[in-house]
Design a protein that fits this description.
Blueprint (H helix, E strand, L loop, with lengths): L10 E3 L11 E4 L3 E5 L4 E12 L2 E11 L4 E5 L1 E2 L5 E2 L3 E4 L2 E4 L2 E5 L4 E11 L2 E10 L5 E9 L8 E11 L3 E4 L2 E5 L2 E7 L2 E4 L7 E3 L2 E5 L3 E11 L7 E8 L4 E11 L3 E14 L8 E14 L7 E10 L3 H5 L3 H5 L2 E11 L5 E12 L4 E16 L17 E15 L6 H4 L3 E11 L2 E3 L3 E23 L4 E23 L2 E6 L5 E17 L9 E5 L6 E5 L14 E19 L4 E19 L4 E2 L2 E9 L3 E10 L1 E3 L5 E5 L9 E14 H9 L4 H12 L11 E12 L10 E13 L4 E10 L4 E2 L3 E8 L2 E8 L6 E8 L8 E6 L5
Antiparallel strand pairs: 1-2, 2-4, 3-4, 4-5, 5-6, 5-9, 6-11, 7-8, 9-10, 10-12, 11-12, 12-13, 13-14, 14-15, 15-16, 15-17, 16-19, 17-18, 20-22, 21-22, 22-23, 23-24, 24-25, 25-26, 26-27, 27-28, 28-29, 29-30, 30-31, 31-32, 32-34, 33-34, 34-35, 35-37, 36-37, 37-40, 38-39, 40-41, 41-42, 41-43, ...
Length: 813
């Protein structure tokens, strides 16, 4: 050996013309480098490293044989016998660690002992490994696992394993080992995908048995990895008692352009025993589509879609999520908007759908097209330094075309229903301005001109044989032109009350009164489409408008002059708080808003209902919202409204016809933590030092948790007792979760039905993180969806079928 006294690093070996190596071999070491020139050996000690092309090798000891182009690496042991500096081999994206490595730069073959390497989502441990020139790896006495521990919790033991990079992992006969205990779960061969990116393949179904549906295979099918932008999956469920379901889904995404998903499901559920009262047959479908455009794709146009439509009972028999099951409405919307830069013009097209699963009411609008012009100031001069009154005159434009239908879901596709669609067009031109009166009052006058266009109207006539009014539809274009004038005055009034030498410093009351007047001319007479028709054999007459079935309504036959008023209130207080360093002035909101409003028609001499609404937050945690409607007129014993105000008879402002009170709150453990952490004293610091020094003797009760609660009360009193008693409906729902440890989480959701005096839909769930495994438990203890499910499974998607599940679905009860 030729010894050196100093450490040499980064010494390149240049390939000669007859040298099979195509690139330089660079090597270095922190401790020492020894050369055996006669035998062409290089010995590297201490954090040695060798690099050749895309191959990088690090170890405590490396030996280079330049004669046969091989390298050998291994670790060392310290004085306690512990290994260190084990070889770390990297080639391209592949890497692994081992006890020893021998690699040939020329043939690109290698032999490794006691290796550990990561392949995709899994890890390979092997006794002996050989690597050929195609980077295919052959392992003797290997173990495959998705556990990242050096000594894995579980693994699949196989005498032979073959790894084809970026393609697959194949094993010979293999069996499952859990906590080093062999199990009888064995397979004649194993196949594990190891491809990078998307790949198509079979989706293994889950199996089980149901008391009501029989034996089943669920969610089995095929996955199509189409390309980098879109995929698709076709899944199916099949039951031994003839029930089945089909699910087709697709996800797509193009970076900086758009993303979304599509899902279609159809099911045929046969519940109960045929020819018995409990037998039920349901054919249901559901469509979901969501599309979102990236804002960067096109700043001037935007397209989005959210489709949720299907059979009313689909979620009753097929929903797996509590939110879907409890939902009583399906809503859909598809929207396209377009704006022209440097212009005030905008265009939007929308299609919407709203479906109630309880009443089966269905409303579809297809399409709705709106063209608008933003507010402009046609008389404003850029050269005027001082604004004139006419500079604030603004003008805007709105054109709308609609086509909609309101029916029941079972009648929607019938031709007679489709002929009942309401459609039309409308144009609105508002002209307004505003200026200050007496410095503190803002005055806003507005003129609205509108025109509604219809392509069909109605005609009514009395049929003496039927003794009723018959309505006919008349095709043809008719327009309904309208105009109105309104003016509004508003201001702000501030009230402050100051306190001296008290913790309470100030109370501030802000009032926002608003007064307005709206004049709407009357359009009575046949030239405006208002007619009279006999309605019975007694000769009684009723009025109607040929536009009354139109989508935008009819013209008012009588003029009206509404004087409107409202008063909004805000109440806050400021308190003084002291700490060790300074005095803090804290603002507390007592009432966020409390509003009362009404109107009086000076032409019709009638009052409108009084509306009251309020919102506040109590103790920063309880949100309180109130809404109410008061009818100012008296009613007789039969519930008919009289032309007499209750106020005139000393009976108060009126009768509360309906009201809503909502209370909601949420608590988090972080709220308490922040509050207690804000106060730090030397004594507390001494306690913390002691706890940190003897951490094992203390229990941390700062457990993350959350609690949410919502209460709603609805009061209805449209009729007068004893005809109909006032109805009070109450609902309470609550949910929460608790993280017992970093691996244990439990959650719950429930509610209370005050009418039946029992709990509503209730669910309990728990999750236990078992490192590379997970345990999940879900339980609905009672009700229509009574069921439970417990599952222990591997978290990695590669071995997602390695699971143990026990469940009892709601239709088995």
């Amino acid at each position: 050996f030729a010894d050196t006294d100093s450490i040499k690093k980064n010494i390149p070996v240049k390939p000669k013309e007859d040298n099979p190596l195509k690139s330089k071999v660079t090597y270095s070491a922190d401790d020492s480098i020894h050369f055996d020139v006669a035998n062409q050996h290089v010995f590297l000690y201490g954090n040695a490293e060798v690099t050749y092309e895309d191959v990088n090798l690090k170890a405590a000891y490396i030996e280079l044989n330049l004669a046969d182009n091989t390298v050998y690496a291994c670790g060392k042991r310290d004085s306690l016998g512990k290994s260190y500096g084990l070889p770390d081999f990297k080639q391209g994206t592949e890497s692994f660690k081992a006890q020893s490595i021998r690699y040939n730069f020329k043939t690109k073959k290698g032999k490794i002992s006691e290796v550990s390497t990561k392949e995709g989502e899994g890890y390979i441990h092997g006794e002996t490994i050989k690597k050929d020139s195609n980077n295919t790896i052959y392992i003797k006495n290997g173990r495959y696992t998705t556990c990242d521990l050096a000594h894995p919790d579980f693994y699949i033991q196989a005498s032979r394993i073959k790894i084809i990079p970026n393609k697959m992992i194949v094993t010979g006969p293999a069996y499952l080992v859990i906590e080093d205990v062999p199990t009888p779960l064995a397979i004649p061969f194993g196949f594990f995908p190891n491809a990078k990116g998307r790949s198509s393949g079979i989706i293994i179904p889950t199996y089980g048995a149901s008391d009501n549906l029989g034996y089943y295979l669920r969610d089995g099918g095929y996955y199509f990895g189409i390309n980098d932008y879109v995929d698709a999956a076709l899944r199916g469920d099949i039951y031994s008692r003839e029930s089945w379901a089909l699910h087709a889904s697709s996800d797509y995404k193009k970076r900086y352009e758009y993303n979304g998903f599509f899902d279609f499901s159809y099911s045929k559920m046969l519940l109960g025993v045929p020819e018995t009262p409990s037998y039920n047959k349901e054919n249901d479908f559901f469509v979901r589509w969501s599309h979102t455009q990236d804002p960067k794709a096109n700043p001037s146009s935007y397209f989005s879609a959210s489709i949720n439509a299907g059979s009313s009972k689909y979620n009753t028999y097929n929903a797996t999520d509590a939110t879907d099951y409890l939902s009583t409405t399906f809503q859909s919307s598809v929207t396209y908007t377009k704006s022209w830069q440097n212009t005030p013009f905008n265009l939007s097209a929308n299609a919407s759908h709203n479906q109630n699963t309880i009443t089966h009411q269905l409303t579809v609008s297809l399409p709705q097209i709106t063209f608008s012009m933003n507010r402009i100031y046609p008389f404003k001069s850029q050269s005027d330094i001082v604004q004139k009154w006419y500079d604030k005159i603004s003008l805007s434009y709105l054109a709308n075309a609609s086509n909609s239908i309101n029916t029941y879901d079972s009648l929607f596709f019938r031709p007679a229903t489709l002929r009942q669609m309401q459609n039309g067009m409308r144009q609105v031109i508002p002209i307004s301005t505003n200026f200050n009166l007496f410095k503190y009052i803002t005055f806003t006058p507005t003129i609205n001109a509108s025109s509604a266009w219809y392509f069909q109207t109605i005609r009514e006539q009395y049929n003496s044989k039927l003794n009723s009014v018959v309505t006919d539809t008349v095709q043809g274009f008719r327009s309904a032109n309208n105009a109105s004038f309104s003016a509004q005055f508003n201001t702000r009034i501030y009230g402050n009350y100051m306190f001296q030498n008290m913790k309470l410093e100030q109370i501030r009351h802000v009032m926002i009164p608003t007064f307005g007047f709206t004049y709407q001319p009357g359009f009575g007479g046949q030239k405006f489409g208002n007619y009279s028709v006999q309605k019975d054999s007694l000769g009684d007459i009723q009025n109607y408008s040929i536009f009354q079935n139109g989508i935008y309504g009819s013209l008012p036959a009588n003029a009206s002059g509404l004087v409107t008023w409202s008063l909004d209130n805000n109440l806050e207080m400021k308190v003084r708080e002291k700490n060790d360093t300074a005095t803090i002035h804290k603002k507390i909101t007592l009432i966020e808003t409390f509003q009362i409003s009404s109107a009086y028609d000076v032409i019709g001499k009638t009052w409108q209902n009084i509306t009251i609404s309020g919102r506040t937050k109590v103790f920063k945690k309880l949100d309180v919202t109130f809404n109410g409607v008061i009818d100012p007129y008296r009613v007789d014993a039969q519930g008919n409204q009289l032309d007499e105000l209750q106020f005139q008879h000393g009976e108060g402002l009126g009768r509360l016809t309906n009201a809503t009170l909502s209370l909601s709150t949420s608590f988090r453990s972080t709220d308490i933590t922040k509050k207690t952490a804000s106060v730090t004293t030397p004594q507390n610091q001494q306690q913390m030092n002691k706890i940190n020094a003897y951490a094992d003797e203390y229990v941390d009760f700062d457990i993350p948790w959350s609690l949410n609660a919502y209460f709603n009360l609805l009061y209805n009193n449209y009729q007068v007792p004893p005809l109909v008693q006032p109805q009070i409906t109450q609902s309470l729902s609550f949910s929460g979760d608790l993280e017992l440890t970093k691996n244990w989480r439990i959650g719950f959701s429930s509610g209370y039905d005050f009418e039946s005096s029992q709990l509503t839909y209730t669910s309990l769930n728990a999750y236990r993180d078992l490192h590379c495994w997970a345990m999940e438990f879900s339980w609905i203890p009672f009700g229509f969806r009574q069921s439970y499910s417990i599952s222990i499974h591997v978290k990695s998607s590669v071995l997602q079928d390695l699971r143990l599940t026990r469940r009892r679905d709601w239709y088995d009860y």
